[in-house]
Write a structure and sequence with these properties.
Chain A: It comes from Fructilactobacillus florum 8D. Chain A: This is Phosphate-specific transport system accessory protein PhoU. The structure holds 2 protein chains of 2 kinds. Chain A is 84% helix and 0% strand. Chain A contains 6 helices and no strands. The termini of chain A are far apart. In chain B, a hairpin with a 2-residue loop joins strand 1 and strand 2. By secondary structure, chain B is α/β, with parallel strands linked by helices. Chain B has 10 helices and 10 strands. The chains are: A mainly alpha, B alpha/beta. Chains A and B meet through helix 1 and helix 2 of A and helix 7, helix 8 and helix 9 of B.
Chain lengths: 224, 256
């Protein structure tokens, strides 16, 4: 049943792409609001989170209908499963964007640690790039980039550890930065988590292409 | 059953059918909307084909059969005494499990119904043979061999030629009794695609043993068991979240 299945799969693909664009925008704006201390932009992100959630619900319905009614097998089946799983990671990334935006509101007006903010901006850039790369890869369902994504995530993990130390030192040097510092800790943790979700997205691409379920961050994925 | 905003094209009420003393259908109520595909599913012997054959009075031919209940096509009782059965079968055509082309050329097969109707104009015949074969998605495969015996084609092609033969007399309703169970998956997929394409012009009712086929192509599905209609509704609802446990069990292959 080529035509009807392919039409519906195309719709699923479109929903996923839309969701990807939305989440990418949410991440861009939330991190920008945090770095620029832009309260107004932060509010836009917070308001936009429900759109991402309803997109996810729509995509889930489409995927479930496709599986139940068209009973796809082999590569078609893997594509749908990959989109379905990827959508829930995207939704989590969207949630994290919302939390970062809330941190913008919370940290506003407190003494800061300039060096730490510079590093956060750097991590942010890194995470945004990873997200763009993986979403690009989803448009062609090409898993070639997956190992590179996992490699990039290890860098994020490393940044996370060193930044944490820098934040602690900053508090010791000037206890008045404590409020801002607690926010920094939260934000770098969220960015690190986003990196892990992006690695998950890369894993689903490998599954989609090869049918193999892999753990790309097996060596050093445990930070807690 | 949900209430339809548009009135159904074909409406059946309290259909009972008896083979002699034995009751094979125990009061079936089903409505069919225009331009929808309805799938009738259920285990062998559940009465789905028997019910289907009531819809163009094919059971009239079997002896010792009693049918009660009402069957309305466009508001007209199809069992009324003055109903011309040949006329009815023109409006409500049927495709069978085994492709059954006549043992003559593709052209003559498709033109057959029109000639019976008294159409002799060569131009009309030629045009409608082509458009019917096109609608049945078999034109490209037979266009250079219209004079070849229809039986010389593959099973899938024969079945689509039979569909074209039926379309040529411009029916309103098309009944299909397991039209792909004798065909390979590729030919089946082509028939399914054809049905999807033509449903905008016809009302289609298909009996199928393939749950996948029902779920792929139908808008509504009716699940029958032991001569009863167990559940009828939107295919999506029936396959994702049926009301009755029996439906769920059957769809999951737990019996039947």
């Amino acid at each position: 049943m080529a035509t009807i299945f392919e039409n519906r799969l195309e719709k699923l693909r479109q929903s996923f792409t839309e969701m990807g664009v939305d989440v990418s925008e949410q991440i861009y704006q939330s991190t920008k609001s945090y770095i620029d201390h832009d309260v107004k932009l932060a509010q836009t992100v917070i308001d936009g989170d429900s759109d991402v959630n309803s997109n996810e619900t729509k995509l889930e319905k489409q995927a479930m209908n496709l599986i139940a009614l068209q009973q796809p097998v082999a590569s078609d089946f893997r594509i749908i499963i990959s989109y379905l799983k990827a959508a829930s990671d995207l939704e989590r990334i969207g949630d994290n964007a919302g939390t970062i935006a809330r941190e913008t509101l919370r940290a506003k007006g407190n003494p800061r640690i300039a060096d730490v903010e510079t590093v956060i901006a750097k991590i942010t850039k890194h995470v945004r790039k990873m997200l763009e790369q993986i979403l690009d890869a989803y448009t062609t369902l090409d898993a070639t980039i997956a190992p590179e994504i996992a490699q990039e995530d290890r860098k994020i993990d490393h940044y996370y550890q060193t930044t944490r130390t820098a934040i602690t030192e900053g508090i010791l040097a000037n206890p008045e930065t404590a409020v801002a510092a607690s926010s920094y800790l939260m934000v770098i943790r969220l960015l690190e988590r986003i990196g892990d979700h992006i690695v998950n997205l890369a894993e689903y691409l490998i599954y989609c292409e090869t049918g193999k379920i892999v753990e790309l961050d097996a060596d050093d994925g445990h930070l807690d | 059953m949900t209430k339809q905003s548009t009135s159904p094209l074909l409406r059946t009420r309290d259909v009972h059918l008896y083979y002699g003393e034995k009751e094979a259908l125990h009061g079936i109520n089903l409505d069919f909307n225009q331009h929808e595909i309805t799938a009738l599913i259920g285990p062998s012997g559940c009465g789905k084909s028997t019910y289907l054959r009531c819809l163009n009075r094919m059971n009239d031919l079997a002896g010792n059969v009693t049918i009660t209940g009402s069957f309305e096509l466009d508001g007209q009782d199809i069992y009324r005494p003055q109903q011309d059965v040949v006329e009815l079968r023109k409006l409500v055509g049927m495709v069978f499990q085994q492709p059954n082309p006549f043992p003559f050329s593709v052209f003559d097969n498709v033109a057959y119904g029109m000639r019976v109707q008294g159409i002799t104009d060569k131009k009309v015949l030629t045009e409608r043979v082509e458009s019917s074969l096109r609608q049945a998605a078999v034109w490209d495969e037979v266009k250079d061999q219209l004079n070849k015996n229809a039986l010389a084609f593959s099973g899938g092609q024969q079945q689509r030629i039979c569909i074209a033969r039926l379309l040529a007399v411009q029916p309103e309703v098309i009944l299909l009794d397991e039209p792909t169970s004798a065909l390979d998956p590729i030919s089946s997929a082509k028939i399914e695609e054809t049905l999807q394409d033509i449903k905008t012009d016809y009302t289609i009712i298909i009996v199928t043993h393939s749950m996948q086929q029902a779920s792929r192509i139908s808008d509504k599905t009716a699940f029958m068991l032991n001569g009863d209609l167990i559940e009828y509704g939107k295919t999506k609802k029936l396959f994702l979240n049926p009301e009755k446990e029996a439906t769920s069990d059957y769809l999951n292959g737990k019996f039947g």
